[in-house]
Amino acid sequence: MTASRILSSVLFLMAFAFYLSGLCGTIPAYRDSGDLIASIHTLGIAHPPGYALYILLGKCLSGLIPFSQPAYRANLLSALAGAGAVALGGVVILVFYRRVASDASRWGIALCAVVAALLFGSTPAMVELARVSEMYAVVALFAAGILGGLLAGTPEAYRVSWFLLGLGLAIHPVLIFLLPVFFLLPGTLAVIARSEATKQSVLSDRSPRSPKNWRPRDDGNGLFLLSLLGFLLGASVFLFLPIRSAQSPWMNWGDPSTWRNFWRVLLRADYGGLKLHPEQSILSWTPETLATQILYFVRLFRQEWGISGLLAGVLGGLAALRPCPGRRPLAMLSLAWLLSGPCFFVLSNLPVQEPTTPAILQPYLVIPNLVWAFLVTGGCLVFLRRNRWVAALAVLCLVSESAFTLTRVSHRSDFYTYDYGLDVMRSLPLGAVVFDPDDPTSFTLHALQTTEGRRRDLVLLNFFRTRWGYEQIRRRWPELLPGVPIDNAQDLQRIFWEYSIRQRPFFVELPQKLGGLPYEAQGLVYAVKPSAPAAVRSRGEALLHLYRRRGDFKTVHHPDFYTRHLLGYYAAAYSNLGIANAGAGRLADAVAHYKVALWIDPELAAAYNNWAVVAHGRRDFARAIDLYQKAIELEPANASFRRNLELVPRQSN
Questions:
Q1: DSSP characters for 577-624?
Q2: Helix H segments across 204-266?
Q3: Backbone angles phi, psi at 551, to 5 degrees
Q4: Potential cystine with 405: which of 122, 234, 555, 564 (Cβ 3.0-4.6 Å)?
Q5: Residue-wise pLDDT tens digits, 537-583
Q6: Maximum Cα–Cα distance for the chain, whole Å?
Q7: Which helix (H) or strand (E) element contains residue 306?
Q8: Class of residue 113 by CB neighbours under 10 A (exposed 0-12, middle 13-18, buried 19+)
Q9: Euclidean distance between the first and final Cα of the chain, in Å?
Q10: Is 220 left (phi over 0), alpha (psi -120 to 50) or beta?
Q11: CA–CA separation, 600 vs 549, rounded Å?
Q12: Dist. CA 183–CA 335, nearest whole Å
């Protein structure tokens, strides 16, 4: 067995054991996991752009494993792909530097490659994404394969990279940022191959070929034509979307059975297009925003690699400036890093002060992290050339600074999303309609409906403002709409409140979606236009006692945004039921609910404000002032909190 095979096996087993030890056992509290689990289980169409190959791979893996829950099998795909990315990335780094760093020892290169691969595998983004059902660990695996083909230095490997790119785009389009690098390869192939030819001629005591006259065997139109054919062959997996959609699967986002809908799904036309967030991502820039986004990227990247990792990578990049066989390939890698890292952050242009921004951007650090591992290896080799002890100290600093990742909280006992979905289902009566649910609610309920067959009677009104969403309602729940055509989304929403609500009970998980419509809290959901408020309030009280609380239910104890967001639903439920009790004159019960809400989420400003209103009504002005001030500290821009505070001194005089 060759050294590269031994290295890849060891790296894979180490990474897989680490990822598996913290793998989520059910629906993870992360981004789009619920939707992807449901789509894999039903072999359906996930949210745009569909992720065709990811769904197919997940379905194949689920079929090969006859045991465990569907959600666990979907999560397992990420662990396997993440471990594969670490192993393949390590081998590619090893082979590349053994070819271009002839002045370093083979064992030294192997050590540096192993350290860089393990550091890449232990970056926070990679650890998080290798333990949940998301496609980005598979993206990392394909990116490692693409870079391996690009750096191999042969026309055959170059064509394989084009094929992998075509396939990989059906996992996630972020791989498109590697595309400009492909057009630099003819020159890069020539440089590496000249070096190889020179080495072989020296070893065989033959006269080396003249570098001036050397050209790759397939360089030219033939190389690019075959590469294009390979790319199109790989990209043909996108045809899964219209073929499967025509069979009307349970999960059928965008209904890409027609060419119009197919292109709209691929381009995310109904999901924000190039925007990572439909409202927050603003596609306009100024010099100030450009600088802000670049600095924000550097800050997040430092959290991934630490100071030592940043310095080692920068040193590796600077070392590539000297004349050497690997100079142009390393320049190519630097371009890939710039495009997939800082340039992508600038393109997304998300507000850096929003708590959702790091959570949205974290998955897009995977490719920059992989590329950075190459430069970190080069930096370690610089130290190794100078002094072994200096190199050992540098490696120690790199490993120790990233060791905190190994002690991250495991997802193995994470049942927050699963329990939240069950609790929402407990809150809803038979045949209820959930109006315009947010992604966490919608994706979780879809996963439970498809994988466990729970509450198929529930209607989730998603994307009813789109043509395909409206047609889906007509097809699946025709009783919700009258038998007349509806021209626009505004008329459709009006019909919901005038006609549909008489056919089925309507609920929301966030009351602000209702505008001025009356509602009543019923645990985690809110009934629209309740007919008997007292009875509804009593049911809401009873539901709070039925909910399961597995795990730590304090938001501040969880570093990830998505778990805090889910627990925030529970805090809001207690706070809103407190409002209902306060309106009914049950002030003691209202205060008790506000206290529970703040115990779950100590940063829930609305609960402080609501509690202050009760204290104000009881003429406990000192307590009211203190509570209003806490609310203002959490939300300084909230004008209503300040107005409420201004009322207290005037009435207390």
A1: HHHHHHHTT-HHHHHHHHHHHHHH-TT-HHHHHHHHHHHHHTT-HHHH
A2: 221-235, 240-245, 259-266
A3: 105, -175
A4: 122
A5: 577 778 888 888 888 899 999 888 999 999 999 999 999 999 988 98
A6: 102
A7: helix 287-319
A8: buried
A9: 87
A10: left
A11: 11
A12: 12
Q: Which two tokens stand for residue 29?
A: 């509290």
What average pLDDT does this structure show over 639-649? 84
Sheet of 506-508: strand order equals 459-461, 433-435, 506-508, 525-528, 519-522
- Please state, as a whole number, how many other Cβ atoms lie within 10 Å of the Cβ of residue 98: 16
The partner residues of 525 in beta bridges, in order of sequence, read: 522
* 168 touches 142 (CB < 8 A): yes
Residue type, 20: L
For the segment 394-434, what is each residue's pLDDT rounded down to a tens digit? Answer: 566 666 656 655 556 678 888 999 999 999 999 999 999 99
Q: What is the DSSP letter of 409?
A: P
Q: What are phi and psi of 460, to 5 degrees?
A: -105, 110
Peptide bond into 70 cis (omega under 30): no
How many angstroms separate the Cα of 323 from the Cα of each of 320, 329, 331? 7, 12, 12
Which residue in this structure is represented by tokens 């320049």? 331
* Structure tokens that stand for 258 in this block: 């027609």
As a whole number, mean pLDDT of residues 457-475 equals 89
Which tokens in the block code for residue 162?
């084009």
How many C-beta atoms lie closer than 10 Å to residue 307's C-beta? 11
DSSP state of 532: -
Q: Tell me the whole-structure pTM to 2 decimals.
A: 0.89
SS3 assignment, position 307: helix
Which amino acid belongs to residue 645? L
Mean pLDDT of 603-617: 92
CA–CA distance, 421 with 425 (Å, rounded to integer) = 6
Q: What is the Cα–Cα distance from 46 to 439, expressed in whole angstroms?
A: 12
Cis bond before residue 49 (omega within 30° of 0):
yes
Task: Output the CA torsion sign for 40, 44, 50, 53.
Answer: positive
The string over 605-634, giving b where at least 16 C-beta atoms fall within 10 Å of a residue's C-beta and e elsewhere, is bbbbbbbbbbbbeeeebeebbebbebbbeb
Strand partners, 528: 519
